């Protein structure tokens, strides 16, 4: 079995008249945390949405676990064991935290049927989810909503977790909590693909990294190597880690 759980080969995406992705090549190694970096407008979110089938690739191939998923619909892709947390988190504000979690637990029709052992594991990762279990999700803070969004994505076992900018707008203490949670998720065997703008967040978490610019991956390698090469950081991102 390939060491790469997810592979994109020459992926192009058009949205209306706009050509957004121009031949993206990306590999996500199994069991590792891959960071997808790049300036605003580089195509990172479009790449995630194309992987999930929310936008269809107009050219190229996307494979997951060796299976071609390029033309599959989003529900089919999710059933393969891929969870996606979009940048806007997708929280149902009028529902309680419990109801949001139950919606994602496809094998449960009531909270009593949810996997209790898995819930307790999630509560240890994100104590706020348990604390506000019966509260309307719309009344949570930004950091608490992000914790709920990730918790909802992992309420059932997933092979791959894709998250778009998990640290955006969060306080430093919440970011540290999120980093610890992702580290524990990785240790549990979940493969993770993160889009991130917080470079410290990326440096602390990433095993591998891909940098996008103008709809292409222009650099791929180890996160450690990029974090130690200031000239490369300036060239790719216009900043120093």
From TrEMBL:
A GO MF label: ATP binding
SUPFAM superfamilies cross-referenced by the UniProt entry: P-loop containing nucleoside triphosphate hydrolases
Keyword annotations from UniProtKB, A to Z: Amino-acid transport, ATP-binding, Cell membrane, Membrane, Nucleotide-binding, Transport
Any coiled-coil regions, as ranges: none
Ranges of residues in domain ABC transporter: 6-239
Pfam families associated with the record: ABC_tran
Family of this protein: Belongs to the ABC transporter superfamily.
The name this protein goes by in its record: Branched-chain amino acid transport system ATP-binding protein
Biological source species: Ottowia thiooxydans
Lineage per the UniProt record: Bacteria, Pseudomonadati, Pseudomonadota, Betaproteobacteria, Burkholderiales
